[in-house]
Amino acid sequence: MSRLLHVSASPRGERSRSDKVARRLIAALGAAEVETLDLAATALPAFDGAAIEGRYDLIEGRAVDPAVLAAWDGIRAAVAHFLSFDRIVFSVPMWNFGVPWRLKQYIDVLTQPGLAFTVDAAGVTGLAAGRQAILVCSGALDIRPGQPGAELDFQTAYMRAWLGFIGITDVHEVQVRPTYGSPAEVEAAMDRAYAEADRLAAALNG
Ligand SMILES: Cc1cc2nc3c(=O)[nH]c(=O)nc-3n(C[C@H](O)[C@H](O)[C@H](O)COP(=O)(O)O)c2cc1C
Question: What does this chain do (predicted)?
Fold first, then answer.
C-alpha cells in the first residue's frame, strides 16, 4: 500500500478525538505518501439541482450551462482524486447517530454512476474495488459493538454500507467511545482506542 488518503470529517481540528486516533494509526502504518483531506477546510463541488439536472443533460448529449460543466469537472476531479489512493482512513465523529454533513456531501459528490459505480443487468459494480478503508469512529455515547445501544450506530453501519456499494470490502474499524464522561472514563476510552489502532497497524503491517 503506497498512497494513503486521510479523510477528516471533524471540524474540531487538533482537538478532534477521532483525528488524534487516526493520526496515531497513520503514523504506524508508514505509507509512502499521505494526504489529508480536511473536509471542514475544503470547498467541495456543489451538488445541487443544476448539477443533478445537468447530469441527465450531459448523459443525453444536450447543451449545458458553463457553470454546470464546471461543477461536473469538479465532481469528476474529486472522484479521480479519491480513486488515486489505495488506502483511505476516515476519521468520523457521530453526529445525531449518523455522519457529519460535510462527509455526507463528500459521499454525495463521489458516488456517481459511471465514475464510482456502474449498474447493469447483473447488478451494481463498485469501481473503487481493491482499495482498503479504515474507519476511526468517535462518539460521546458508549455504543460500541456488543454494548447496549449499539443498534443506534448508523455512523459505522452507513460508512460500511456505502464503502461496500462502491466496491470497498476490505474495511477495518477503530471505535473511540465514549468521549463524554468523567476525565478518567474519557482517558480510558482514548487509551483503548490508541491500543486498538496500534494492534490494527501491527496486523496490517505484518
Ligand atoms: C452536532 C453533534 C451531534 C452529535 N451527536 C452525537 C450522537 O448522536 N451520538 C453520540 O454518541 N455523540 C454525538 N455527538 C458527540 C460527538 O460524536 C463526540 O463529541 C465525538 O467525540 C466528536 O469527535 P471529534 O472529537 O473527532 O470531533 C455529537 C456532537 C455534535 C457536535
Answer: Quinone reductase that provides resistance to thiol-specific stress caused by electrophilic quinones.
CATH topology of domain 3-39+84-205: Rossmann fold (3.40.50)
Query: Cell 476490505, residue?
Result: 170
Q: Which residues are annotated as a binding site for FMN?
A: 10, 16-18, 94-97
CA distances from 186 to 150, 179, 180, 193 (A): 18, 5, 6, 11
pLDDT at 1 over 80: no
Protein residue with least CA distance to atom 7, ligand 1 = 96
d(CA 69, CA 30): 38
From the annotation, which residues make up the binding site?
10, 16-18, 94-97
pLDDT top residue among 17 and 2: 17
Above 70 in pLDDT, residue 190?
Answer: yes
- Going by alpha carbons, the residue nearest to atom 1 of ligand 1 is 95
Ligand 1: which of 19, 25, 96, 142 to mutate, judged by most atoms within 8 Å of the beta carbon?
96
Give residue 137's pLDDT.
Answer: 98
Angle at 46 between CA 44 and CA 48, to 5 degrees: 150
Question: Span 138-148, mean pLDDT?
Answer: 95
Going by alpha carbons, the residue nearest to atom 8 of ligand 1 is 96
